[in-house]
Amino acid sequence: MTSSNSQSKQAEVNQKHRVVFQMNSNDPESQKTLINNILNVKKAWGSHVAIEVVALGPGIELVMTEKSAAAQDVAKMIKSGVIFVACENTMAKKNITKVDLIENVGTVPSGIEEIIIKQEQGWSYIKG
Amino acid sequence: MTSSNSQSKQAEVNQKHRVVFQMNSNDPESQKTLINNILNVKKAWGSHVAIEVVALGPGIELVMTEKSAAAQDVAKMIKSGVIFVACENTMAKKNITKVDLIENVGTVPSGIEEIIIKQEQGWSYIKG
Amino acid sequence: MTSSNSQSKQAEVNQKHRVVFQMNSNDPESQKTLINNILNVKKAWGSHVAIEVVALGPGIELVMTEKSAAAQDVAKMIKSGVIFVACENTMAKKNITKVDLIENVGTVPSGIEEIIIKQEQGWSYIKG
């Protein structure tokens, strides 16, 4: 977790802000709030922020073509560089396949592990 | 987030605990829980902890004079050094102005960005 | 939070993943989700992950023999090395004593402080 001074300076030069959002809820209101939060972050930091949204549990509906209340927003954001990933554990449990997901949504073996790993790598974490 | 070994040691000598609370909810029960959590933290760590509460979305009501279920507690805590800030994005959306906020509540351009930045600076994060 | 490549490799050899879960809810569905998340993490990382669950507020029911919807799972997980701790502030408030807790559940003076300290020590944080 710690590193030398020179590395820190290097990091400050090269590095963007990095944030991972945890999306657990299929509540349309929560989905809209998340979209809004991302828009605000992009507006302020532009290309200087890396954003990943991890959809898991009921929250997986955010990235499902037929179920998302924000499907168009998600598609547009993916084009602008925001990463959306679905939890494969959740997919297996709910019989969801890649075909059910919005185009260019990625998958990760486990949503929880993904969030843990991102924090290990220094990403900030927001529970949506 | 990062530092050299000597900086770390320095930090351990000088530095207090630092925690940023995210307040998204306008549920009075959640507001009371947050107040309680802060009281407990202050009781244990006294002046050795820096506490900031970021009120955003529906949670902005926590810091609004007319709407907060904990207005007196918030005012008292501000006097004791706890920082409360409101999200300007939320304020703009809900037509809330500084006048509507409890005295000495600060504002930040974006509540989400504030929480991201605080984590980058090594603050612990609690989703209220 | 950042480190050189060689440090990263070193970390992968020596260090386990470490994650602290915050359990605030007494909703049986949330309890099951938490148990599931832990099972998935254990399945993937086995002994290479340290897991601590902090039960506080209404979430303390997770670790109470008579109230938990997942008492058997909790007992089994403790045997497999997962740490469960109850918040003593919550216990005092609700007149809960050690006798009411599932065997080998620990206690901490304050659940919130425990989560803050764990993050200071580099643990990842998941709001359950």
Explain this structure.
- The structure is a homotrimer of 128-residue chains.
- Chain A is α/β, with parallel strands linked by helices and 128 residues long.
- Chain A has one domain (16-127): Hypothetical Protein Ychn, Chain: A (3-Layer(aba) Sandwich).
- Chain A is 41% helix and 20% strand.
- Chain A has helices spanning 5-14, 28-45, 71-79, 88-93, 111-120; strands at residues 17-23, 49-55, 83-87, 106-108, 124-127.
- In chain A, strands 4-3-2-1-5 form a five-stranded parallel beta sheet, with helices on both faces.
- The longest helix of chain A has 18 residues, at 28-45.
- Chain A is globular, with a radius of gyration of 15 Å.
- The B-C interface holds B 1-2, 17, 19, 33, 36-37, 40-41, 44-45, 124-127 and C 1-3, 22, 57, 89, 109-110, 112-113, 115-117, 119-120, 125, 127.
Features:
20% strand; Hypothetical Protein Ychn, Chain: A; disordered N terminus; 5-stranded parallel beta sheet; homotrimer; DsrEFH-like (chains A, B, C)
Strand-helix topology:
3 copies of one chain form a homotrimer.
Chain A: H1 5-14, E1 17-23, H2 28-45, E2 49-55, H3 71-79, E3 83-87, H4 88-93, E4 106-108, H5 111-120, E5 124-127
Parallel strand pairs in A: 1-2, 1-5, 2-3, 3-4
What's this model, at a glance?
The structure is a homotrimer of 128-residue chains. Chain A is an alpha/beta fold. Chain A has helices at 5-14, 28-45, 71-79, 88-93, 111-120; strands at residues 17-23, 49-55, 83-87, 106-108, 124-127.
